[in-house]
Design a protein that fits this description.
Number of strands: 5
Helix content: 40-55%
Structural class: alpha/beta
Largest sheet: 5 strands, parallel
Shape: globular
Number of helices: 5
Radius of gyration: 12 Å
Distance between the termini: 12 Å
């Protein structure tokens, strides 16, 4: 899952995975969350991501999500990284 719908998601996460057959065979981007559900829905649709979550919490509660990529602003990144770890997720940032 992806925490945040930052502009860099396509070129920093999606393209490297999709352009590498080994990674693409092992990693599924299951969903994305944002502060605004509408923003998550727009990002999911535009970037070909399966699900848009209504909140960061909802994404972290989803047991089908094993790991999250945290692209949130510096000011809140650490707090959400800790929340993700506490939820049992692996975290990339």
């Amino acid at each position: 899952g992806i925490l945040g719908a930052a502009r860099n998601v396509p070129f920093s996460v999606l393209e490297p995975i999709r352009n590498n057959a080994d990674l693409a065979a092992k990693i599924d981007i299951m969903g994305i969350s944002s502060l605004e559900q509408k923003e998550a829905e727009t990002a999911a649709k535009g970037w070909g991501i399966m699900k848009a979550y209504k909140s960061f919490e909802e994404l972290l509660q989803d047991s089908s999500i094993d790991a999250v990529y945290n692209v949130l602003p510096r000011e809140v990144r650490a707090a959400w990284t800790i929340r993700a770890l506490m939820a049992g997720k692996h975290v990339l940032r």
